[in-house]
Design brief:
By secondary structure, this protein is an alpha/beta fold. The chain is built from 21 helices and 30 strands. The structure holds adenosine-5'-diphosphate and zinc ion (ZN).
């Protein structure tokens, strides 16, 4: 018997399958989709079995498969095929597709068992004999264990009972067994029974939404529901129906910050039938959750992007909440979008895919309007809550009057809400204290020596930091150029905002949510819990706080600088701004009628900001479509972004030009190639970055051309070519 093994060749991600002989000892064990160890170039490496056959036509000697890496894990038919699809849409290699799909504990580079075992003690004698023995036993500790064993069959071995257990073993009364245990268990989570979520009865709109979904067939639905319209209740209801029919559900949220609240809601509703899967888990925890899914022990998976690849069987529904989120797109190679994977799996499992959002991606709303997706709308907030009232503040006037950070209106509103013991959320999409440090005598600006970016001052660590490469420098009091005491701290970050709030409202309790305060494991969840329990009055945060969070006591939302995302050099900056501002605004007054939002801007006449103020998604959609048509951007065409990078600027320029030329020669006449240009951040970590952009509508040979270029540069040590198909950022 022979097997075709897919391995990582030469440390490059070029696919190669090699034929190996299956030794007799492994003949009955080896299956397609299994990970095995094979000899290659005088060492042993791991690979996947892709094919098993009885014959081999070559006339040379074959090496034997050395061993099986993971006995109890096989990539199933669906995942084997999904890997090929992933390769096709991202141009990655098949081996990196499979490795991307697996948690790090199961990737080919790993080969130890992540299972956690615990030792239990069980009786090693007949019950009657043990009873007899107990009659005369004087030692209390031994008695205790034996009595427990008569009741429970097994007792966990712990530090405290080790010596007693040893004695009992030596007497032949008990023996040890090892058993795999899961690191996360519903029973240990201590969800207070009294808190078990009551199922609200659905509103008419929610009911209609649920009824519109056909659970018996593949179709993608766009659930467009305003913030607070009760989308989650619709999801849960659909999931309940799916589970009743004996199938399973895959539920994705965009960020770990959201999973905390969502997981709690799911656990309360569905208890132990839930597995969770997100990057906030340790490798061991992920491994365990993956096992639960693989073994079919759960009916629901709740997770972030990578959960879309979990081996859940009999999927009856796939839901992506907040579908507009950029986190559904992986920003490292392979640059896949979980929405595409969801649709593929929906088709494979013949089940519905639900994309939910209050601010759907332009592209997905277009799909719905064209009839490719079925549109379902939730137009009203649940109960008496109304959409929040939004006011604009022109910051030009405020700066003149010395209120450049918090406007007079916002200050007054915050004070009102504090007096009423209501909560406030403030968005500022920049972390740190000051975003630029300059010298007012000589004009010196602190920049990262390795990146094309200014350094951000962080007050909490008294240092200047690069947000791209992590370069850190201690703050100094004098300018390194002219040695004057004339450094200015300009630009505003979350730290400075927090500081300003403490000055203005000394008695308020402020909590800050950004990468700096939430990087420790569990920090997200505990900050969110504390804010829910009203241990804080004001939450300051980056876009991390914009989506999905549901805090009933928040009645005021302030957007400190609405213009920040408008200035991103990207065709989607308007869409991103609309989405971000509307989502944050949607956090206000979700259970009450007095929700209010204050948007601070230097561009009060900007159309995107106007549409946000009017809660007018469809107006925004029309406006944006018009812009996209005039400028020829998606959905009027497709985009591919190619990033060419390397240490040597001249070489990067030269190769970018030759890539451009090659494309121009080989693509169809209608396809447009732009560039090569320096990327918007021209250097990161001493690596220069150039860009070529492709816009096309239909081009049958394009992917072949790209594949050719990709293969060619895969073996180039000095130039890295990174191809992003349908990028969310260019
Ligand atoms: P969305 O995701 O659409 O922004 P949520 O699903 O978070 O909205 O719902 C907003 C709030 O309304 C939540 O607190 C939820 O518990 C509550 N809710 C949803 N549906 C109902 C209902 N039918 N009856 C009462 N409360 C509901
Ligand atoms: Zn840097």
């Amino acid at each position: 018997m022979y097997a075709q093994i897919l391995i990582e060749y030469n440390n490059k991600t070029i696919d190669k399958t090699f034929t190996y002989l299956i030794p007799k000892t492994l003949k009955d064990k080896i299956k397609v989709g299994m990970q095995v160890r094979v000899p290659f170039n005088k060492r042993l490496i791991n690979g996947f079995v892709l094919k098993i056959s009885d014959t081999f036509l070559g006339d040379y000697d074959l090496k034997k498969i050395d061993s099986i890496v993971l006995e109890n894990f096989v990539l199933n038919e669906e995942l084997l095929r999904l890997g090929k699809y992933l390769k096709q849409i991202t141009l990655c290699s098949l081996i990196s597709a499979y490795n991307t799909m697996l948690p790090s504990s199961l990737k080919t580079s790993k080969n130890h068992d992540y299972s956690k075992y615990q030792t239990y003690i069980i009786l090693d004698k007949d019950i009657s004999l043990v009873r007899e023995y107990l009659k005369t036993l004087k030692y209390l500790k031994q008695r205790e264990i034996l009595e427990k064993l008569l009741e429970n069959n097994e007792v966990l071995k712990t530090k405290d009972n080790t010596s007693t257990v040893k004695t009992l073993i030596s007497k032949g009364l008990v023996k040890e067994i090892k058993r795999q245990v899961y690191r996360i268990n519903y029973d240990d989570l201590n969800y207070d029974d009294l808190n078990i979520e009551k199922r609200p009865s659905l509103t008419e709109e929610q009911n209609k939404a649920v009824e519109e979904v056909n659970l018996k067939g593949y179709k993608t639905y766009l659930l467009y529901g305003v913030t607070g319209s009760g989308k989650t209740e619709v999801y849960m209801n659909l999931i309940e129906r799916v589970i009743k029919s004996g199938k399973r559900a895959l539920f994705l949220v965009p960020e770990i910050s959201l999973t905390a609240q969502m997981i709690e809601r799911f656990y309360k509703r569905f208890s132990s039938s839930v597995a969770i899967f997100h990057s906030g888990l340790s490798n061991g925890e992920k491994y365990d959750e993956y096992q639960k899914i693989y073994r079919g022990e759960v009916s629901i998976v709740v997770g972030t992007r990578s959960a879309i690849f979990t081996p859940l069987k009999d999927i009856g529904i796939i839901i992506l909440d907040e579908e507009h989120s950029s986190t559904y797109k992986q920003d490292t190679t392979p640059k896949y979008n979980a929405i595409d994977i969801a649709k593929w799996r929906g088709r494979y499992n013949n089940c519905p895919v639900i994309l939910g959002s209050a601010t759907p991606l332009i592209i997905d709303m277009t799909m719905a309007r064209m009839g490719w997706y079925q549109l379902i709308s939730l137009t009203k907030r649940v109960g008496n809550a109304k959409l929040p009232f939004i006011r604009l503040v022109n910051m030009q006037d405020e700066v003149r009057n010395g209120h450049g950070i918090i406007s007079r209106l916002l200050e007054r509103k915050i004070q009102e809400r504090l007096n009423n013991h209501e909560q406030i959320m403030l968005l500022l999409n920049r972390r740190g204290y000051s975003t630029t440090v300059t010298c007012s005598s000589c004009g010196f600006v602190y920049k990262c020596p390795y990146c094309d970016i200014t350094l951000t001052y962080h007050d909490s660590s008294n240092s200047l930091r690069c947000h791209y490469c992590g370069y850190t420098k201690l703050k100094s009091d004098i300018c390194p150029e002219c040695h004057n005491h004339s450094l200015n701290y300009m630009g505003l970050g979350t730290e400075k905002l927090e500081y300003e709030l403490k000055k203005l409202f000394p008695r308020s309790r402020v909590i800050r949510m950004d990468v700096d305060t939430t990087s420790k494991k569990g920090a997200y969840a505990s900050l969110i819990r504390e804010f829910t329990e009203a241990k804080y009055d004001i939450m300051v945060g980056t876009q991390m706080i914009s989506k999905g969070l549901d805090f009933p006591k928040v009645t005021l939302v302030g957007i400190i600088n609405a213009d920040m995302s408008l200035n991103i050099p990207d065709y989607r900056s308007g869409e991103i701004t609309y989405e971000l501002l509307s989502q944050v605004a949607g956090r206000a007054g979700r259970k009450t009628s007095n929700g209010e939002v204050v948007i601070q801007t230097f561009n009060p006449d900007n159309p995107y900001i106007k549409y946000v103020t009017d809660n007018n998604y469809l107006g925004f959609y029309q406006y944006e479509m018009n812009f996209r048509r005039n400028t020829f951007y998606p959905p009027y065409c497709f985009i591919i972004s190619m990033l060419i990078s390397g240490k040597d600027l001249n070489l990067v320029e030269k190769e970018s030009q030759s890539i451009f030329n090659y494309l121009n020669k080989n693509v169809s006449l209608k396809t447009k190639i732009y560039g090569p240009n320096a990327a918007s951040i021209g250097k990161i970590n001493n690596i220069y970055r150039y860009q070529v952009i492709i816009k096309y509508q239909k081009d049958e040979n394009l992917f072949k051309t790209l594949q050719y270029l990709d293969n060619m540069y895969a073996s180039n040590r000095n130039i890295n070519l990174d191809i992003d198909i349908n990028p969310l950022k260019i």
